[in-house]
Recover the amino acids of this structure.
């Protein structure tokens, strides 16, 4: 069955780089787009960016200068790297699969706290 | 960027009533408008896609309507398990923006 699972450090120091991994199963990264969405505590959802099935990427312009998304299709993994983290980057980070603009499966999310 | 405005921000409901949640887009998104339900400490769950298409496994009391800039999510006979936050999301253009959400609470 389709599954996505995020992994990464729960705590990151200010100004450091966040590295997250989304490991997928039950579908191919060469057939579906995978997106990253984040949610600050008690707030709404923010689209961060996507890895398309063909390897192309797109980013939220508000994050573009700090954000990079890549993948390893042999390992069924999509990676997120974001630098210069600040306290308002604290939140839950989700990866999700896109069908045709809708997100049908989501990971459980990983909570990231930016604090010294 | 397309801005999605959801209203009301909070809705107090009584079990059994029919309710409607609104999502208005700052420009036309055709029918590329999707609805999600998020319960506390859970990931979002797709409820309705393309404004009005049902999703397998989602109770039939959930329905959607609209096109262009005005959309509605309806729940026909609210149940206690429906007390959640509901988000709309547009997929017509990048970035794929979300509304701020409508929280259903018990009256």
């Amino acid at each position: 069955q389709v599954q996505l699972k995020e992994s990464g450090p729960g705590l990151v120091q200010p100004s450091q780089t966040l590295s997250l991994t989304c490991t997928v199963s039950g579908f191919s990264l060469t057939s579906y787009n995978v997106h990253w969405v984040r949610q600050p505590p008690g707030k709404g959802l923010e689209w961060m960016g996507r890895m398309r099935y063909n390897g192309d990427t797109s980013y939220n312009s508000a994050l573009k200068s700090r954000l990079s998304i890549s993948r390893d299709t042999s390992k069924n993994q999509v990676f997120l790297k974001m630098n210069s983290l600040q306290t308002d980057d604290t939140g839950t980070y989700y990866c999700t699969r896109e069908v045709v603009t809708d997100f049908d499966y989501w990971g459980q999310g990983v909570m990231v706290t930016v604090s010294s | 960027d397309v801005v999605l405005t959801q209203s009301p921000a909070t809705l107090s409901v009584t079990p059994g009533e029919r309710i409607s949640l609104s999502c208005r887009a700052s420009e036309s998104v055709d029918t590329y408008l999707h609805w999600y339900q998020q319960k506390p400490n859970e990931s979002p769950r797709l409820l309705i896609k393309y404004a009005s298409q049902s999703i397998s496994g989602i109770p039939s009391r959930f329905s959607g309507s609209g096109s262009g800039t005005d959309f509605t999510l309806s729940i026909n006979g609210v149940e206690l398990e429906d007390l959640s936050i509901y988000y709309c999301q547009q997929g017509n253009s990048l970035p794929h923006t979300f509304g701020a959400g409508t929280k259903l609470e018990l009256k």
About this structure: The mean pLDDT of chain B is 97. Chain B touches chain A at residues 1, 32, 34, 36, 38, 43-46, 49-50, 55, 87, 89, 91-92, 94-101 (CB under 8 Å).
